[in-house]
Amino acid sequence: MMKKVMIATKNRGKAAEFETLFSKYGIKVHTLLDIEDHPDIEETGNTFEENARIKAETLSKELNEMVLADDSGLIVDELGGAPGIYSARYAGEDKDDEANIDKLLHEMKEVPENKRTARFYCALALAIPGEETILVSGKCEGKILTERHGLNGFGYDPVFYATTAGKSMAELTSKEKNQISHRSEALRNLEPIMKNLFNKK
């Protein structure tokens, strides 16, 4: 098996994170950004796992190659799990990070600090032609801040205080974020599976 994997995303921030995390295994990453005018894959699932599987299996069948897809988002306890699978389009179909943060801060405006608990969640699906799709997940616990902090990262990072880091996700360097993020935990759970695949192929 050639040491490459298609990541089913057009999100440059996500693509950069996967590239950083895969580089240490000598695995070349390419994404939907490398396929001209590729249509978005409709996410019709009701869970992160279902959406990740749909994206991975659809693209793997289309390209006849190994595809890794993630579906990830923010789960806020006080909002009943919202924005959840709708995290990217919480404020509308335009998928505007700043508008999403503004809406979240508005929704949480009156919520006291002890009830602002939240987590980032990531489901990964690895689809390989002729084999069973592999599903793993990861999470990062924290809370929602009352205002933005930091300039790094993307999405909800500026308003998500990561408990283990003691600061917002947007205040972390890429290296620091990759040590604690929901996506990196999911990839760590996938790592032994990937090693086994590449060793036997």
TrEMBL record:
CDD domains attached to this UniProt entry: HAM1
Protein residues bound to substrate: 9-14, 72, 154-157, 177, 182-183
Swiss-Prot/TrEMBL keywords: Hydrolase, Magnesium, Metal-binding, Nucleotide metabolism, Nucleotide-binding
Reported cofactor(s): Mg(2+)
Residues of the signal peptide: none
Enzyme Commission number(s) of this protein: 3.6.1.66
Catalytic activity, as annotated: ITP + H2O = IMP + diphosphate + H(+); dITP + H2O = dIMP + diphosphate + H(+); XTP + H2O = XMP + diphosphate + H(+)
Active-site positions on this chain: 71 (proton acceptor)
Top-rank taxon, per record: Bacteria
Binding site for Mg(2+): 42, 71
Catalytic class of the enzyme: hydrolase
InterPro entries registered for this protein in UniProt: dITP/XTP_pyrophosphatase, ITPase-like_fam, RdgB/HAM1
Cofactor binding notes: Binds 1 Mg(2+) ion per subunit.
Quaternary structure annotation from Swiss-Prot or TrEMBL: Homodimer.
Protein role: Pyrophosphatase that catalyzes the hydrolysis of nucleoside triphosphates to their monophosphate derivatives, with a high preference for the non-canonical purine nucleotides XTP (xanthosine triphosphate), dITP (deoxyinosine triphosphate) and ITP. Seems to function as a house-cleaning enzyme that removes non-canonical purine nucleotides from the nucleotide pool, thus preventing their incorporation into DNA/RNA and avoiding chromosomal lesions.
Family in the record: Belongs to the HAM1 NTPase family.
HAMAP family, alphabetized: Non_canon_purine_NTPase
NCBIfam families referenced in this protein's UniProt entry, alphabetically: PRK14822.1, RdgB/HAM1 family non-canonical purine NTP pyrophosphatase
Protein's recorded name: dITP/XTP pyrophosphatase
Organism: Lederbergia ruris
